[in-house]
TrEMBL record, chain B:
Keyword Iron: yes
GO MF terms held by the record: electron transfer activity; heme binding; metal ion binding; oxidoreductase activity
Gene3D superfamilies associated with the record: Aldehyde oxidase/xanthine dehydrogenase, a/b hammerhead (3.90.1170.50), Aldehyde oxidase/xanthine dehydrogenase, molybdopterin binding domain (3.30.365.10), Cytochrome c-like domain (1.10.760.10)
Official protein name in the record: Aldehyde dehydrogenase cytochrome c subunit
Entry superkingdom: Bacteria
Native organism: Acidomonas methanolica NBRC 104435
Length: 157, 1213
């Protein structure tokens, strides 16, 4: 038995300890936010927060996540209000197909958890290994700047 | 269920107006002619009494926001609030068959009947109002879902939708001549409207096809055949010899293994079970032959062609023959990928022959036809529910996976979800085809073009559903050929004499349509060539184009763009390139109209680029700094959506032009992940300035895709401007750019005042390292054979000198009560320090019950049962027998033990400690476990020989403290040399398996096939070990400045957990003594960057692999990221003589070893091949161990270690 704490709720699950956290979140807990992208920790589509920091759930086993609070895209909203990062992505239309959107939002949330006032360089650095194939980078950067309290238009890169 | 059946779903509305039309034959790519004689009408819109509107469209939203734009069109024409409208896209059961969603034609083509239907619903509403209120229709208008009479100033409310439709179900046939709103009256269309899908996507509520979960659903995985990424030829469907079902019979949860032809799939209860089964399943395939794509240009030229002459104006040959200047150029476009961020997925439920398929397809109706053929079921019995998927830009594996899921569901009779792996999507998706364009032209004396001859070769069959050919439901021996190479094949410029020939050719690799299909390559050639002509003519490239364009809207757009970008007129190319400048910058222009559909096709939006680029002469890296892009799309339904699409197309096409190229070897496609097929990252994002032409009165044109088309020419032209060198092959990677620039401009050596670590030779050694010499530490077979001779001689003399040892009498197992509890507890800690359980436990077995197979250079040793079982364990061993074994290596029965059992170290233990350890072991639970005897081959199998060995190499005396050292140091030395037996692995052994002495002490050895690095003063760690670092490492299994404990060291750390902090510290004090006397602080940031840059020059492929496959977890500070993020610059494995540890970790990853928060690593066994890993290692060695010689024979070593059984790498699941 594995005990996972996800979005504030504790779950006792009869799953193998080496099962990827991503599969268990999606298949056993019916969550849709974290997405399978590569299974290799390369793209970031599966991102979740573990103890407030971003982790790639495809490359984390359940055993390794046991006893550490996990938050997924579904768990960001609190008291019926969206996380400001989510709001920023909606306002700035930071998605085309939206498959990578989970990873982008979670990454910026983790960045803000670690660095209260990140600058443009920190944002770009944080997103550096989050891949988007539709080319939504412009809107994602605008959303990230907005979420970080910067001018969405930003400076010239 | 299309047609009136669908309307039953609207009966809950309390009334509706539905606008229908008899079905029409679908058109366009892949459309299948259907018998429509008994087909029900298609429904386009339903306006419901509950103030909701549903619009139906057979096209789908591929992540472009088209659902929002279509809803705008419906709201506009129907005169209802935008918020009422919901679009249903692509379900075969409800939406009309409008052909594939392709070529940006949804707005231009598929939206037309939808718009008319919305208008007709509006007109019907007026008719109903007129009849029920006794007024004239002509005096009524609809606004915001209310029917009004009178003009705008004094309008009077007549009736609402709810009032008019209550209890009415009115079905109206679409009147093609229905009155449409004049554009001037638009209020919703043309306004910026937020996408309706984004809030759900930002909160996890959206249900992508990947998220579909059905009651009773099982998980399937497929295993693809060995002709990786090729789908035609006689081997297709005929290569499977058989699967060995037994190979997965030990795995839990397996429901079925399905094979049909070359289709292989497994079905399991849980997803990770299906993944494990697919990986473990042993499948035998026939040898397959693959097309040779090592020379893409040659492969395209030799591919048999059917030429089509699409344009023949004037007399090209005569014009060229009589011209003053002639010019020819060939352009080569690589295979590229959709590379959707989410690999394709589908759920299928066979439902006793009336299948339901949840799909992310681009072409639901076309897919339904394919599935009907696959499972031999009438089309109308199959229903496809279309869900959004990860963005795709043409035909990827979204359809293929539906066939896979359907076959598996049919086999097991339950719903099955199939998720393709990243590797499968990369390898098997129908690629964007490679293309070869051959152009010749000529100029007159004034530099004006007089002739233009263009040929293009396009290899594709648009890719049949993969399951159809794998199962041989469709013959793949001779592929069909498609006429899709003709998009934008006609040049946009007014060449008086012009000829265009398109060579339709069969596929080589699997290829279908990808964004800008054939138009992007064709325009690359057209618009590079016109740039070359302008340069030959000494003309400004923009002005030269304007002279040749007869299209006023194109000219207006180009002028506006030039103005916006501040284009400076030139007179031909720059007179000279500064050869001393490290960074060169340039600006180029490109222009195109994307013409899609069957030739002559339909023009989408006009587009032009002005691109600013820079190239670094040292590294060869090209960056696109800024893109000014103009688009004239006519009236824009949602300008915000258009801008968004243009941004996306600019980013994606910059990625394609700079970075993207599918690679092949003799096994087929070798691009299997984001390292082997890198795409643009945030770090490389250009600044983008979008100019949308304001054309509210012109018809809307397909947007987005057309913005990609001029990209390649604009960027290549800018690179020409910067360097004077033409690049006619893509992508513009450092490996292509730098040698070309070096050839043209000379090797860049920089301004003399700046120290430069060059020149590097042009041809770089494949071995990656400069110095020669064999890698140390690896014993070759030949060495071992030589040693064997010596060993035999020694055995003969030594064993003659010493007798066989006597057995010691067995005793009854001592009572637990006879031992002191304090001694037992101390014994527990000693057992942990000695890691007894690490060796004496079989994988998954009971601790200390023995049975683990250990590979040694002398053969395989089986560890014994250490539990106090009287028959199979050590239960009948007296304490003297135990001491003799520990100190002298003699078993109770008198036979010699091999020094794989480290009695050579245990001999250092004190009597008191041996007593404690004995107490501990004898009070454990006895486990009956008879292990097989170790049998080594001669001469090692002759155990008495060990007596001679001991005479030569063994000192049986206990540890003698060094009075000149601290108690802590002595404690550490005792633990390291005694129970800890660190030297057992970390000291090299001689040819007879004895630890070497003297300076070789702890100088690095081997453990279970892993390199055990040198410790103490001879450690090669780039940052010297400190006591604190060593304590951190031993306590947590990781130290940021040195890396993680992996392989056999991971369980050692785990065992040592129970040791008190003082002991760990004592070990650290002893082991770090003397380290760092000559040490440095590790590479500083600047050194590191320049080393990595230099290494990238030497090994560009390895550098790309590292960036895409490794860097996300291994590079850079990231306080916001979970996990240890080992820094490879500080990892001593890169400094070692042998690369084995790195190879093992790359192949099989690093599983979770119980250290909280440390992180894990997936294995790359299934993703990176031997050549790729070798390249990665050469890069890493060069970057992080610059003073060390390169590793030789890497590929061979990787192949050897790949062949050894690693733990199951679960990379990529």
């Amino acid at each position: 038995m594995i005990e996972l704490t996800v979005n504030g709720r504790r779950h006792r699950l009869d799953v193998p300890g080496d099962a990827p956290l991503l599969h268990v979140l999606r298949n056993d807990l019916a969550l849709r936010g974290p997405k399978y992208g590569c299974g290799l920790g390369e793209c970031g589509a599966c991102a979740v927060l573990i103890e407030g920091r971003v982790a790639r759930a495809c490359a984390v086993s359940c055993a390794a996540a046991e006893g550490r609070p996990i938050v997924t895209l579904e768990g960001l909203a609190a008291d019926g209000r969206l996380d400001p990062v989510q709001e920023a992505f909606i306002v700035e239309q930071g998605a085309q197909c939206g498959y990578c959107l989970n990873g982008m939002i979670i990454t910026i949330r983790a960045l803000l958890n670690a660095t209260p006032a990140p600058d443009e360089a920190a944002i770009r650095h944080a997103l550096r290994y989050s891949l988007c194939r539709c080319g939504t980078h412009v809107e994602i950067l605008r959303a990230a700047r907005r979420a970080c309290g910067l001018d969405p238009a930003g400076m010239s890169p | 269920m299309s047609g009136f059946g669908l309307l039953r779903r609207h009966e809950d509305a309390g009334g509706y107006i539905a606008v229908v039309r008899p079905p029409e034959q679908p058109h366009g790519m892949g459309a299948v002619h259907r018998d429509l004689s008994n087909a029900p009408d298609d429904v386009f819109v339903v306006l419901r009494a509950d103030e909701r509107v549903v619009g139906y469209c057979g096209h789908v939203d591929l992540g472009t926001g088209i659902a929002t734009a279509l809803a705008q069109i419906v709201a506009e024409e129907m005169e209802v609030p935008f918020s009422w409208v919901r679009m249903e896209l692509g379900h075969t059961g409800t939406t009309p068959d409008q052909g594939a969603t392709i070529a940006s034609e949804t707005i231009q083509v598929a939206a037309i009947p939808l718009r008319k239907a919305a208008a007709q619903a509006r007109e019907t509403l007026k008719t109903l109002a007129a009849a029920s209120h006794g007024v004239e229709v002509c005096g009524l208008h609809v606004r915001d879902g209310i029917v009004w009479s009178g003009g705008a100033e004094e309008r009077r409310r007549v009736a609402s939708v709810a009032e008019l439709l209550a209890g009415r179900q009115r079905i109206v046939r679409l009147d093609e001549g229905v009155a449409l709103k004049p554009r001037a009256a638009y209020r919703v269309v043309g306004r910026e409207v937020p996408r309706i899908d984004i809030p759900d996507k930002a909160t996890g509520r959206a249900v992508y096809v990947h998220d579909v979960r059905v009651e009773g659903m099982l998980h399937g995985r497929v295993v693809r055949p060995p002709y990786h990424g090729v789908e035609h030829g006689r081997q297709v469907g005929r290569s499977l010899i058989g699967v060995e079902r037994d190979s997965i019979s030990h795995l839990p949860g397996i429901v079925d293994v399905v094979t049909i032809g070359d289709f292989v799939g497994v079905v399991a209860e849980r997803e990770e079970q299906a993944v494990a089964a697919a990986e473990a399943l042993v499948i035998r395939w026939r040898q397959v032959g693959m097309p040779d794509l090592s020379d893409l240009d040659a492969a395209l030229r030799s591919n048999p062609s059917t030429p089509r002459r699409l344009l023949d104006r004037g007399d090209v040959d005569a014009a060229i023959a009589g011209a003053v200047t002639r010019h020819e150029a060939d352009y080569l476009w690589p295979y590229q990928m959709h590379a959707s961020i989410g690999p394709s997925c589908a759920v299928a439920d066979w439902r006793d022959g009336r299948p339901l398929v949840w799909s992310g397809t681009q072409n639901p109706h076309m897919l339904r036809g394919d599935l009907a053929r696959l499972v031999e079921t009438p089309e109308d019995r199959i229903e496809i529910l279309r869900h959004e998927a990860a963005g795709c830009y043409g035909r990827n594996c979204a359809d293929d996976v539906c066939g896979d899921a359907l076959l598996l569901s049919r086999a097991v009779g339950r719903p099955v979800r199939v998720q393709l792996s990243r590797r499968q999507e990369h390898v098997w998706e129908p690629k964007g085809a490679a293309q070869l364009m051959q152009v010749s032209g000529a100029l007159d004396a004034r530099g004006r073009p007089v002739a233009y001859a263009f040929q293009t070769r396009y290899p594709s069959n648009v890719s049949p559903l993969l399951a159809l050919v794998l199962t041989r439901r469709m013959d793949a021996d001779r592929p069909t050929i498609t006429q899709m190479g003709d998009r934008t094949s006609i040049p946009p410029y007014a060449y008086d004499n012009a000829r265009v020939i398109v060579h339709d050719t069969p596929p080589i690799a699997r290829a279908s349509w990808l964004r800008g299909v054939s138009a992007m390559p064709n325009s690359f050639a057209h618009d590079s060539f016109v740039d070359e002509l302008a340069a030959l003519a000494g003309a400004d490239p923009l002005a030269y184009r304007l002279d040749l364009l007869r299209d006023e809207r194109a000219c207006a757009m180009l002028r506006a763009l030039a103005d916006r970008a501040g284009w400076v007129m030139r007179h031909g190319p720059r007179p000279a390139i500064d050869r001393t400048a490290r960074v060169l910058t340039g600006r180029g222009v490109g222009y195109a109209v994307y013409v899609h559909g069957a030739f002559p096709g339909v023009a989408a939006a006009w587009a032009a680029w002005i691109a600013d680029v820079e190239v670094d002469r040292l590294t060869g890296v090209v960056r696109v700094l800024r893109v000014h892009i103009a688009q004239d799309a006519g009236m824009m339904v949602n300008p915000a959506g258009v801008r968004h699409q243009v941004h996306g197309n600019v980013v994606q096409s910059v990625s394609r032009v700079l970075k993207e190229e599918v690679t092949f070897d003799a096994t087929g496609v070798t691009s299997r992940d984001w390292g082997t097929y890198p795409i643009l990252t945030f770090a490389e994002l250009p600044d983008i300035d979008v100019l949308l032409m304001d054309r509210p009165d012109d018809p809307p044109l397909g947007v987005g895709e057309s913005a990609s088309v001029p990209s390649a020419a604009a960027i290549a032209n800018a690179l020409f401007d910067a360097t004077g060198v033409r690049f006619r092959e893509l992508p513009l990677t450092p490996a292509r750019v730098r040698p070309a620039l070096d050839r043209a401009l000379g090797v860049w050596v920089g301004p003399s005042e700046e120290p430069v670590p060059l020149p590097l030779p042009l041809a770089l050694p494949r071995g990656g390292g400069a110095a020669g010499g064999r890698p140390g530490g690896t014993r070759s077979l030949r060495d071992l054979l030589k040693l064997g001779v010596v060993a035999t001689a020694l055995v003969q003399t030594a064993s003659a000198a010493l007798p066989v040892r006597p057995a010691l009498a067995p005793v009854r197992r001592p009572e637990a009560a006879s031992f002191d509890t304090a001694a037992i507890e101390r014994g527990r800690l000693l057992a942990a320090a000695g890691d007894c359980a690490v060796c004496h436990t079989a994988p998954g077995g009971i601790p200390n019950a023995g049975g683990r197979m250990m590979d040694t250079p002398f053969g395989q040793i089986v560890t014994t049962n250490l539990t106090p079982d009287e028959e199979t364990g050590i239960g009948r061993w007296s304490f003297p027998a135990f001491v003799r074994a520990m100190r002298e290596g003699i078993s109770r029965d008198g036979h010699h033990l091999y020094p794989a059992f480290p009695y050579t170290s245990f001999a250092r233990m004190s009597d008191a400690d041996l007593e404690a350890l004995y107490a501990y072991l004898m009070t454990r639970t006895a486990i009956s476990n008879a292990v097989p005897a170790t049998k080594l081959a001669f001469p090692y199998g002759f155990r008495p020989a060990m007596a001679g060995w001991n005479l030569l190499f063994h000192d049986p005396n206990p540890y003698r403290p060094d009075p000149s050292r601290s108690a802590e140091w002595n404690r550490g030395a005792y633990l390291v040399d005694g129970p800890g037996h660190c030297s057992g692995c970390h000291t090299p052994r001689n040819g007879l398996g004895a630890e070497k002495s003297g300076s070789a002490y702890l100088a690095g050895g081997e453990a279970d096939g892993w390199v055990a690095p040198p410790l103490g003063a001879v450690s090669r760690a780039p940052v010297p070990w400190t006591v604190e670092a060593m304590v951190r490492y031993l306590r947590s299994g990781h130290d940021a400045e040195h890396g993680p404990a992996l392989g056999p060291m991971a369980p050692v750390v785990e065992e040592m957990r129970v040791l008190p902090d003082e002991d760990i510290r004592a070990i650290a004090v002893y082991l770090t003594e003397g380290h760092g006397r000559d040490g440095n602080a590790g590479p500083n940031a600047d050194d590191r960057l320049s080393r990595m840059a230099l290494a990238a020059l030497r090994e560009p492929q390895g550098a790309r692999l590292f960036a895409g496959s490794c860097a996300a977890c291994h590079e850079g500070e990231a306080r916001h990221m979970d996990g240890a993020r080992p820094d490879l610059a500080l990892n001593s494995n890169l400094q070692e003589d042998r690369p084995d540890n790195l190879i093992r970790v790359i192949l099989d990853g690093a599983p979770y070893a119980g250290q909280r928060g440390r992180g894990e690593m997936p294995g790359f066994r299934g993703v990176l091949d031997d050549r790729q890993i070798a390249s990665l290692l050469r890069y890493l060695r060069a970057a992080h161990a610059p003073g060390r010689p390169g590793w030789e024979g890497l590929e061979g070593r990787i192949a050897v270690l790949r062949g050894q059984s690693g733990h199951a790498g679960r990379g990529g699941q």
